[in-house]
Write a structure and sequence with these properties.
Number of strands: 24
Structural class: alpha/beta
Strand content: 15-25%
Strand order of the largest sheet: 14-15-18-13-22-19-21
Radius of gyration: 24 Å
Largest sheet: 7 strands, mixed
Oligomer: single chain
Helix content: 25-40%
Number of helices: 13
Shape: globular
Distance between the termini: 44 Å
């Protein structure tokens, strides 16, 4: 097959326009259209909005075409994009791998171990996705938070209540990203995630995908147990490199023990009690930089018009996104994070005395507001300077301190504030044209009291800078809410080139362990760890 890039067609073109553009490019209409590989939007010229495609085609005279266009970098042979699973149908009769956590890292690790024949057992502290939705919606409506099943904990991990973005900046020469996307599609995600330049599933679609993924793991001989919390581990047989894992059944309140040679820690970025247990067990870990800030909301149509213009063609395009990066006068990185076109801000707290926000969109991205986190980098040096020490848990203590300040500011509700009042350091008294689209209870507050002053200053500088790039971004009635503090794990559990910690048989995995930053990268890390576990069990046990 031949791959052709930079096929450009107006956004209001008919379906046949792509084939006509291909024929014009190769000067040959005798081809078979195979598939769209990539689709993106070119909105640089608001008067000429374009879709840009990369496509695969088949031709009877491919060598002749390639020779004719040998100097055209947009026309070439297709590359092999298949992920090759390293082991298949392994006849393994040893102790089964145990996976802690049913987020993207844990589920993909379990999926691929099950496909290789290892029949993993997955323990998840939270509920299955349907039960989890009930817990979360009850909390958003004013009920008590369930500290074990919430926006952070439960089937699907933190990504279940998010925009479901799948774009990632990681490098992947072995095509694991492609495998992740193909798996999502096979489990019920929309086909367009396989070719959109910025694919997303949406929280509504993702719930179906999770149940289908779980079913394949079970069909392959694996097990998935919800409401089962990992509380301890220890060496039980040093000669056999055996680990005893203690699990609390939160329904019966009984503790069970399980023996394994491979314990995968896909615990998620908010499992602070687990971090503390691992630290007390002297697992090698370190504090990690992350980012902290607020959510900003604007009217979706304002963002759309700024990005696409106001023509009839612009109305054919999906809700617009943006990406902000800035270096503050103090040298801080300020950037947008988890931008949610046409979405909600959600209360993402995972325990008492916390005010934490995140963004969420359904697949349609058709809510009235668009939102994004505006966050500022913080480092272990900051944790130490603010009195939290230099232990591996110093970032956790930093997070907890500022989430408590935000909780107190809102008296248990999400504190919100207009941008002009944030700049003037005063509590908002009324909204302008923009009103919050928030899942969860909220109230007016002063977000300056919820974050370090150097973060507040950098946020103001960043928003004012980006207002010069995206008209209206810094408008006075933009809504800020806080705080956004779970951008990534505050801890990294050290692992070697074999993906194993200093505790033999323990494999840190995914975002919570400090090795991923989103759904796709966490899923890819899960596959990598599955490969490493399989190799370890085959060659060493």
């Amino acid at each position: 097959m031949i791959r052709i890039s930079q096929i450009k067609v107006p956004v209001d073109s008919k379906e046949t326009a792509i084939k006509k553009a291909i024929a014009k490019t190769i000067k040959d209409s005798n081809f078979e259209f195979v598939r769209i590989v990539k689709k993106s939007i070119d909105a640089r010229d608001k008067n000429n909005l374009l879709f840009i495609y990369t496509v695969d085609i088949k031709l009877p005279n491919e060598k002749k075409i390639l020779q004719r266009f040998r100097n055209n970098n947009n026309i070439m042979l297709t590359k092999n994009e298949s992920y090759i699973i390293p082991y298949k149908n392994i006849s393994y009769d040893g102790q089964r791998p145990i996976i802690i956590g049913a987020g993207p890292a844990g589920y993909f690790c379990g999926l691929y171990l099950s496909r290789m024949g290892f029949k993993p057992i997955i323990f998840e502290r939270g509920c299955s996705v349907d039960e989890r939705v009930k817990c979360v919606e009850d909390f958003w409506n004013g009920g008590a938070i369930n500290p074990e099943s919430n926006v952070s904990f439960g089937e699907g991990g933190a990504g279940t209540f998010s925009d479901g973005k799948l774009n990632t900046g990681i490098k992947d020469p072995l095509n694991r990203i492609k495998a992740v996307i193909n798996d999502f599609v096979s489990f019920g995600a929309p086909l367009d995630i396989s070719y959109l330049a910025k694919p997303h599933i949406g929280t509504d679609e993702l719930r179906v995908v999770l149940k289908n993924m779980r079913q394949e793991i079970v069909n392959n001989g694996g097990e998935v147990h919800f409401n089962h919390k990992f509380i301890d581990y220890a060496k039980s047989n040093t000669d056999k490199n055996e680990i005893t894992v203690s699990i609390l059944n939160q329904i019966t309140n009984k503790i069970s023990t399980h023996h394994t040679n491979s314990l995968i820690l896909a615990i998620g970025h908010s499992a602070r009690d687990t971090f503390r247990m691992l630290y007390n067990n002297k697992l090698n870990m370190e504090p990690k930089s992350f980012a902290i800030g607020v959510r900003i909301e604007h009217k979706r149509d304002m963002i759309d018009k700024s990005q696409y213009g106001n023509s009839d063609k612009a109305k054919l395009l999906p809700a617009a996104d943006y990406k902000m990066t800035f270096r503050s006068s103090e040298g801080r990185s300020v950037y947008s994070f988890c931008m949610c076109p046409g979405g909600f801000v959600v209360n993402a707290s995972s325990g008492d005395n916390q005010s934490v926000v995140n963004g969420m969109s359904n697949h349609g991205r058709d809510e009235v507001n668009s939102n994004s986190a505006i966050v500022v980098n913080v480092t272990p040096k900051d944790f130490c300077n603010e009195g939290f020490g230099d232990s591996p848990l110093s970032g956790v203590l930093f997070q907890e301190s500022y989430e408590k300040k935000a909780f107190d500011e809102g008296k248990g509700k999400i504190p919100v504030q207009t941008f002009i009042d944030f700049k003037q350091n005063k509590v908002t008294e009324q909204f302008g044209d923009v009103t919050p689209n928030i899942k969860g209870l909220y109230t007016f507050g002063n977000l300056n009291n919820c974050l370090p002053s150097y973060v507040n200053n950098a946020i103001i500088e960043g928003i004012e800078y980006y207002d010069r790039k995206l008209c209206g971004f810094g408008r006075e009635d933009s809504i800020l809410s806080g705080i956004e503090s779970r951008t990534s794990s505050p801890v990294r559990i050290i692992r070697n080139d074999d993906f194993m910690s200093d505790y033999k048989g323990v494999f840190p995995c995914g975002e919570g362990a400090g090795y991923a930053g989103g759904i796709t990268s966490a899923a890819v890390d899960g596959i990598k760890v599955a490969e490493a576990v399989a190799s370890y069990l085959i060659n060493n046990i």
